[in-house]
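Q: Predict the assembly, please.
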Amino acid sequence: MAKKKFVVGCFDEEAVLFPAVKKVRAAGYKIHDVYTPFAVHGLDHALGLRETSLHTAGFIYGITGTSTALGSISWILVKDWPLNFGGKPNFSLPAWIPITFELTVLFAAVGMVLTFCYLCQLAPFVKKHHFHPRATDDLFVMVIECTEKTNVDDLQAFLSSAGAIETDVQVAEPGWWLGTYDKDETTFENSNPVVA
Amino acid sequence: MHLKYESQLREPLVMGNKDYHQVTEDIVHPIEAKPSKLWYIGFYIAVALLLFGIYAIYRDVTYGIGQWNLNKTIGWGWDITNFVWWVGIGHAGTLISAILLLFRQGWRTGVNRAAEAMTIFAVMCAGQFPIWHMGRVWMAFFVLPYPNTRGPLWVNFNSPLLWDVFAISTYFTVSLLFWYSGLIPDLATVRDRAFTKLRKKLYGIASFGWTGSTKHWQRHESLSLVLAGLSTPLVLSVHTIVSFDFATSVVPGWHTTIFPPYFVAGAIFSGFAMVQSLMVIIRKVFNMEDYITLGHIEAMNKIIVLTGSIVGIAYLTELFMGWYSQNKYEGYTFWYSRAYLFSPYGWSYWGMMACNVLSPQIFWFRKMRRNVFVTFFMSVIVNIGMWFERFVIIVTSLYRDYLPSSWSVYYSPTIWEIGFYLGTFGLFFTCFFLFAKYFPVIAVAEIKYVLKTSGEGFKNKMDKIEEQPLDTFIHDNAHAH
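A: Predicted assembly structure:
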């Protein structure tokens, strides 16, 4: 993917961030993303993101597990190698409930976690550009994508007036690539953290 | 906007006047600092126990499990006792992270990460016992259903022992996924603070390239919630199925319909006791009294007194049914083999009663629930009691069965059986010491999430909000998205 130009605004208060998101969107800028140190509830709605369908995927994986368990156990115990367990019927559904349940949960959980990692492009050795190292510590980092019409200085001033404590312009790769973080451009020390 | 208000009547979950950065500093500090002497001493003791356990297992494989003093009558002794004991302990972590998430218990945030880690290590320890008890352990893969050249001869899907294979392996996998998916954002926090290249590299690999994107957080929340929903019945099913190992048999003392709820309550009871033992140490050693507060300890002690009393009712119900059923074998098992103090194993029954039913009643007193020393002492007592419970169930039912000619001589374990048990302690604590050194023991992101509503520094401002007129209060605090 080609590199793009971004304007970055850092906020240190949710109470400031939410009105700022509203203002920036009302002014017609395209917010690339907001990076936060924890799940800020309602921010996805404020950014106009749609609800995730991950749970639907989980349901589909779950019923796949249920049918895998019931299908294979009944084929094994009824068709492939019927055994006589104390004269009980070969198709003994109640005794299969525990394994069916366990496989339902197993398929749903494993499937959902893999789907989550796929959707968010998370894996070992995956590297992404970090707009601010304190985005995982105490800052809410709003990243706005620039078009050729964007006046960068105006936008930075606009962000500061909306309450950003720090603004910045970065040219960065928005996707992911393979790599490790030891060759990072910005380090935590250079980002003037509040030393406790 | 999220809710900014929480009643002042609720105890703060995070003590002290902290901001987000301070939370990161406090929790990540032990990972970045050199470990103390105490850590090294503890770690070396754990490794020594682990090595002894490995030697005991080496002997088991070489000479067979006859060296455990098991015989034809008592075919399950310490090994299965220890298995059930460890699996039971492994129930608290997922209970805290799943069931308490669904019940919206805010205090879980302080203890869930370490409790989940404890769960995973406890299940790892539990798994050792059935595996090495097989004797010919190189045949262990026979428990899996796979097409083979022996017929194909399949495993018996109607057997509780196979249910156990599926339940324990599913439980381990799901707990591991739940734990690690929660860890990813916190590992990213550690990565972004790393001061050496090696740390940056390793934590970078471990955090999967997490950035904290809003969309990713939204999916992460959805994932946690669904995993919690899946794990809740899973926690209950695992110990239910463990209890089926006994309850579906025809041995007096095992053939009992109350086993599933009774085992689940016992598992939560012992699991919380182990969490208490570890938390009391962690909060002291890592100076985390602000995050694992007396309020957290009190909440867990309430669960201990509740589940301990449920277990107590189960013991009494069993005794009652032993008489009321008018079944001679049941009566003999419950009223002679177990409850009669001077029967060969009477001491274990009364040890169990004292540790599990009587002593936790001390937690009806608030002062005792909030006393760290009492809590630590009681947590050890409860775990001893729960070990006795499993020993009572297994050995006292087996040693005198239907056929008096096969009644067993007094069973006692050998050093190798004890060594194996000690070895699992070594495994557990080796893993736990490494976890405490290299991973954030408290969920950093989750603490930040509750900080502004439940942090002590923010709660002080709540009285101003409480004085507002109702309309302003609703306007400011109701959801505005």
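The two ends of chain A are 39 Å apart (CA to CA). Residues 54-119 of chain A form one domain.
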